[in-house]
């Protein structure tokens, strides 16, 4: 008689969930056996930054380098605008002072007024022209590096998805015993997207902001080192605010995604076992559990919004406070007659104050907004570590490897034999399923495996088909 009991599936891998779904509790006699605590999954080290581009071609690498050059040029050009804004400001101030003196009755100022007006028009037109050219240059460089890095990231992301899918299809069943339900789909959809984001415009934007930071501070110190040093006091404050804001937002986002994922897992299991749910009448209980996860996610999101509002408010407070500091100390420098270059310039002016202020502000802002871009790259390195581990994994039973022994056709004779086999599934290696079993399957005959559910019938078939290799437990 052939046993018609359900085949014994491999033990389900532990997903580390905090709730239990429907299923019989294991018992030993009349005493309930407590559920085993899930084992902690080994931490996978993140991939290095350069390893993110392992599937890029040489042509794409050269294009990326060209994009980095364009990003550096665009970032350095942004603070240069402060020089022309400073010249425009000083032109307005000088012409306004001459005009005011002429209106006050000064004959000398009245004589200088036409020349001052001509010089003002010429300087304003020249500065406006330079600003236009600089703006066009920033537009072109931005288009170049954004286009290059987005396109190359799409191509690399496509290759990573293909390699990951091919590697997954190559794996033996032992690999899937330790992979959670839906994990592969999550890797393809989420992790590859994170990697693609980390190797796209985020890299070029990071260099853009670093270049803007360096350029801004170089211009500021070149124009007035005294005022630049004073305005640098806002750098640590704004950097601290940006770092704390990024830390809190990352923490709250992680908690929110965790609660949403737990709720989604519960909903997925409830829907997949909808018959059992209906039979036991647990709809309201499961709905309450799901609502609890969503409520936790909402609480975390409210905290994240509050932290973001406070952070942005403090950040703009620092900006406006720096306005007051720049104008106050700049006025002091002008009144003292202390210049930018003590050997060449003897008098500070309003244009210098505006130039230094805008250059420091641009450089500091570039450093503050650099954190989110770097965070995307760090997340990409972490996600790539998981993907590349699977891509580089060579299974013990490699279906894509043509080498190895090949059985000869058996025509009417021969047999299949298991001799003193001991086996445990990789996901529960400490729980043996077969213990020192020996069995023979003659060719040309029908052999029935009879036993209770969980006695190892399907495990023997899996070993015979070499889904797994037997192992002797020590």
TrEMBL record:
Signal peptide interval: none
Gene3D superfamilies in alphabetical order: ABC transporter type 1, transmembrane domain, P-loop containing nucleotide triphosphate hydrolases
Span of domain ABC transmembrane type-1: 65-376
Membrane topology category: Multi-pass membrane protein
Annotated spans, Disordered: 1-42
Record's GO cellular component terms: plasma membrane
GO molecular function: ABC-type transporter activity; ATP binding; ATP hydrolysis activity
Main location group: membrane
Keywords noted in UniProt: Membrane, Transmembrane, Transmembrane helix
Annotated compartments: Membrane
Transmembrane segments: 61-85, 130-151, 203-222, 228-250, 305-330, 350-371
Pfam families, sorted: ABC_membrane, ABC_tran
Protein name: ABC transporter type 1, transmembrane domain-containing protein
């Amino acid at each position: 008689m052939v046993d018609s009991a359900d085949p014994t599936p491999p033990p389900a891998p532990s997903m580390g969930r905090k709730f239990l779904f429907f299923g019989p509790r294991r018992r030993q006699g009349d005493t309930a056996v407590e559920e085993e605590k899930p084992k902690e999954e080994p931490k996978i080290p993140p991939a290095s930054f350069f390893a993110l581009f392992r599937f890029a071609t040489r042509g794409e690498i050269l294009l990326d380098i060209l994009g980095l050059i364009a990003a550096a040029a665009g970032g350095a050009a942004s603070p240069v605008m402060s020089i022309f804004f400073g010249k425009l400001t000083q032109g307005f101030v000088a012409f306004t002072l001459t005009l005011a003196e002429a209106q006050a009755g000064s004959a000398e100022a009245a004589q200088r007024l036409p020349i001052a007006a001509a010089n003002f028009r010429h300087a304003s037109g020249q500065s406006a022209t330079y600003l236009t050219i600089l703006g066009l240059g920033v537009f072109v460089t931005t288009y170049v590096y954004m286009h290059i890095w987005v396109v190359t990231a799409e191509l690399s992301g496509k290759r990573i998805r293909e390699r990951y899918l091919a590697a997954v299809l190559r794996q033996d069943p032992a690999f899937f015993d330790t992979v959670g339900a839906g994990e592969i789909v999550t890797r393809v959809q989420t992790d590859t997207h994170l990697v693609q984001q980390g190797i796209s415009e985020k890299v070029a934007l990071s260099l853009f902001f670093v270049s803007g930071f360096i350029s801004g501070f170089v211009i500021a110190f070149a124009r007035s080192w005294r005022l630049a040093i004073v305005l640098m006091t806002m750098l640590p404050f704004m950097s601290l605010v940006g770092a704390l804001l990024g830390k809190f937002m990352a923490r709250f986002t992680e908690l929110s995604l965790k609660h949403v994922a737990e709720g989604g897992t519960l909903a997925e299991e409830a829907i997949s076992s909808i018959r059992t749910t209906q039979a036991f009448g647990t709809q309201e209980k499961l709905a309450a559990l799901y609502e609890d996860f969503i409520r936790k996610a909402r609480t975390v999101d409210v905290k994240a919004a509050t932290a973001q509002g406070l952070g942005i408010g403090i950040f703009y407070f620092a900006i406006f406070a720096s306005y007051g500091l720049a104008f106050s100390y700049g006025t002091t420098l002008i009144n003292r007659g202390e210049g930018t270059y003590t050997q060449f310039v003897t008098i500070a002016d309003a244009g210098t104050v505006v130039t230094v202020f805008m250059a420091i502000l641009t450089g500091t802002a570039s450093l503050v907004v650099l954190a989110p871009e770097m965070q995307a790259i760090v997340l990409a390195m972490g996600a790539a570590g998981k993907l590349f581990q699977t891509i580089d994994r060579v299974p013990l039973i490699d279906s894509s490897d043509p080498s190895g022994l090949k059985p000869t056709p058996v025509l009417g004779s021969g047999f299949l034999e298991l001799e003193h086999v001991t086996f445990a599934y990789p996901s529960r290696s400490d729980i043996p399923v077969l213990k020192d079993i020996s069995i023979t399957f003659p060719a040309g005959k029908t052999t029935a495996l009879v036993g209770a559910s969980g006695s190892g019938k399907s495990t023997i078939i899996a070993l015979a088909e070499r889904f797994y290799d037997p192992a002797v437990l020590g």
